[in-house]
Design goal:
- The model has no long low-confidence stretch (mean pLDDT 92).
- With 71 residues, the chain is an all-beta fold.
- The protein is globular and about 30 Å long.
- A hairpin with a 2-residue loop joins β5 and β6.
- Helices cover 0% and strands 51% of the residues.
- The chain has no helices and six strands.
- The strands form two sheets. A four-stranded antiparallel β-sheet has the order 3-2-5-6, with no helix packed on it.
């Protein structure tokens, strides 16, 4: 579970996602952002309510959607 900061871990710089969108379980986009540096891999979710969310990330190699729980 995540308290305040969601950390995105990747292998190499070229595998960083270009951007992300965080969705509620109802499909509503909650937060969006571009990833241009390593600092952008730390996403502040402190203001989110407790519950389940989905983060969708995309780069030139494809996209992935992963669930996470906010405490």
């Amino acid at each position: 579970p995540v308290k305040n900061t969601l950390f995105i871990k990747t292998g190499k710089l070229e595998s960083y996602p270009d951007y992300y969108v965080i969705y509620s379980t109802t499909g509503r986009a909650i937060k969006k952002g571009f990833i241009q540096s390593e600092d952008d891999l730390k996403i502040n979710v402190e203001a989110f309510r407790s519950g389940m969310y989905i983060i969708k990330m995309k780069n030139k190699f494809g996209s992935i959607a992963l669930p996470f729980i906010k405490e």
